[in-house]
Amino acid sequence: MKAFWLKIIRKPWFFPLVLLLLGVIAYGLIMPRLGFYWDDYEGVYLYKLHNPAISFNYFNERPLSAIPYLLLFPIVKMTPIAWQITSLLLRWVGVLFLYYTFSLVWPSRIQQNRWIAALLLLFPGYLEQPVSVSFARHLATFLFFTCSLFLTVLALKQRKYFWLWMPLSILLGGLQIFMMEYFVGLEIIRPILIWFVLRSEEKKKASFWKTLMYWSPFVLILTVYLYWRLIYLPPILGADPNNPVLLKTMLTSPLSGLFTLFTMIYQDILQLLLYIWPKAFLNFDTMDLSSKRVWFSWFCGALAGIGFFLYNHYYRNDEQGDDRSTAQLILIGLVVLLFGAAPVWATGRQIAVGKWSERFALAPMLGAVILVVNIIEWLFRTHKQKQIMLAILLGVSISGQVTNQVIFRNDWAAQRNIYWQLHWRIPSLKPGTALFGRGTLTDKSSYYDGSYIVNLIFDDTAHQDMRYAYFDIYHTGFEDYFPGIPLTQTPRGTQFSGNTSQALVFDFGVRGGCVKVLDTIYQGDPDLSPSVADLFDISDVANISATPDVPLHTDIFGTEPAHTWCYYFEKADLARQMQDWETILQLKSQIDALGLTPDLASEYFPFIEAYAQTGQWEQAYQLSETAHGIGFGAGAALCNAWQQFAQFNSTAETLTYTEKAKTEFCTAGNQ
Fold first, then answer.
1. Which CA distances in Å does 618 have to 596, 607, 635?
2. Virtual CA dihedral for 276, 281, 284, 286, nearest 10 degrees?
């Protein structure tokens, strides 16, 4: 039986399956519950435009980055799990090409190459795998690059097919460099690999000129790209999101620029080689030993680490790498680490600092992994010690990635809650309306993608001239908000023109609770975000109508979630705006039957007003007292609401309860 399994695991197709299985454990177990994040919404909106002609203009500084979308949109459509699977497959195939490349150059180091491939697929310093649509471009570029590298080596190994493999390698190399600049620094690895192949093939010291000859087409492409990107493009691009500011600083102030560069190099190398491993396993910022998430991630890491250790134990090559090949790979790892991060440092950014900065690890993480594997190979004496150490790192990597997947899963649940609550509260929105809110909708979204999101929610079709826009009040630049301020926004390939005279402000649960559209009844609500509490003057609920109900894209935002308290609150708040008091009372009966209660006092206000509007003053007052008891500071908002109720009529009962409410809620001690 053992001989049978040894025969199976030595099959050429077995390692790719093992590698894919590791990817599924790390990224696939939670995949069905992931969604869209951050810059994903650019791609989602581009797909909804259904206009391939604008795709190349959509990314001005990366014109060919539209190619992966044009290839994938007809197949993957716009379903979250389909993009998650696609993203994993792109990364898996890209890593496989790198594994096959290294195995052609160093056939005696197959086992070490397997560890490099596994750790590269699972590298805990890159945490953007769930951002599937946006990073499909990056991973497709990585795939093109590694395939190009593989074909270069294959052309030198199989001279009979040189004129087939090398032109394909040049084509893919040219495409990837104009798709994304992320891997432009990794081009340095190609001449090194060519040199090593020529040395091994010719059994003598390879000619420098012969290496340069094979590399020259790629150097020409690189030269053209650098001229286009650094000299030709900036004057016509206008605002450059990837402006090489540090490179310019080094040219004008060399000492200052070099000091900044060396600081970045020091911090980022420590991050990639040292800090990420313990952080993946013991992230004290998020770790809770009572959490099932922690134990689940540790179990997945231990299972995969032990499994891959046993696989390598039973499939061990008789021939192992010598000290010379280890030294070669340590040198390559260091060069790739430095040159892979060079495009990032040139823009003044770094891997260790800033939100979403882990994305910059995509290129240099190859160098980091090569270094880690070969430093362990050099430091530890016995084969078993080396394998145990690498298995620990693999387990740590998977544990960190599983934890990261859970964080993204929770964020998607929070996103869906916000989007569906907006849909319930705002079935239809007047075109041209600007929506204001505080910052990003969730931690894994961005304020500048908010306009794509609100258009996908409130418009049944996508338009280049956007009908709606989202303005994050932290980034608008206005000190005061009042009607009549012109508003413009130009997300990639689209534009919006509006005015604060046609605006809507909403708050999305900074202290928990439900999404709340600002209306006069909520003035004084202590649970509103302080940053939006002064925007009542520009929030006009008249822009909302109950019909026609624009259906939400369930392929994007998922099926409608279960109806908990927030569903009934949003529907009641909409009915309050429409003065449909009977509907609110029906909703109140339903939540009473279900035993649902709010977390925030103001979420009772639509129901309190419905009682007041229908003359049920005792019920309105009792529910107000219930609301007052929920949270400190609710009295001011209740006072404001009851002052409005006093204007309904002047009956004795009205006067009795409004005076009673004034005494209860409007005095300083009760607010």
1. 21, 13, 18
2. 100
Distance CA 370, CA 367 (A): 5
Terminal alpha carbon distance of the chain: 78
CA nearest neighbour of 104 among 175, 165, 39, 186:
165
Strand pairing class (544-545; 428-429): antiparallel
Report pLDDT digits (tens) over 281-327.
Answer: 766 455 555 567 777 888 888 888 888 888 887 766 544 555 677 88
Q: pLDDT class for 80, splitting at 50, 70, 90?
A: very high
Where b means 16+ CB within 10 Å and e means fewer, 326-357 reads bebbbebbebbbbbbbbbbbbbbbbbbeeeeb
CA 195 to each of CA 153, 159, 192: distance values in angstroms, whole numbers, following the listed order: 10, 16, 5
Q: How far is CA 51 from CA 54, 448, 450, 620, in A?
A: 6, 22, 21, 54
What is the predicted pLDDT for the residue at 86? Answer: 95
pTM for the model = 0.90
Report the distance separating Cα 25 and Cα 18, nearest Å: 11
In DSSP notation, 390-429 reads HHHHHHHHHHHHHHHHHHHHHHHHHHHHHHHHHHHH-SEE
Q: How confident is the model at residue 58 (pLDDT cuts 50, 70, 90)?
A: low
Q: What is the pLDDT of residues 343-397, one digit of tens each?
A: 888 888 888 887 888 889 999 999 999 999 998 888 887 888 888 899 999 999 9
User: Is the previous residue joined to 561 through a cis bond, with omega within 30 degrees of 0?
Assistant: no
pLDDT digits over 128-163, tens only? 999 999 999 999 999 999 999 999 999 999 888 899
**Type and span of the H or E element at 452:** helix 450-458
Task: Report the SS3 class of residue 129.
Answer: coil
Q: What whole-number distance in Å separates Cα of residue 326 and Cα of residue 115?
A: 14
pLDDT in tens, 321-340: 556 778 888 889 999 999 99
CB atoms within 10 A of CB 1: 5
- Distance between CA atoms of 658 and 652, rounded to whole angstroms? 10
Q: Residue 496 forms beta bridges with which residues?
A: 489
Q: 3-class secondary structure for 557-596?
A: HCCCCCCCHHHHHHHHHHHHHCCCHHHHHHHHHHHHHHCC
Cβ atoms within 10 A of the Cβ of 391, count? 23
Q: Which residues contact 570 (CB under 8 A, 6 or more apart)?
A: 421, 424, 425, 514, 515
Task: Name the residue type at position 271.
Answer: Q
Beta-sheet pairing, 434-437 with 428-429: unpaired
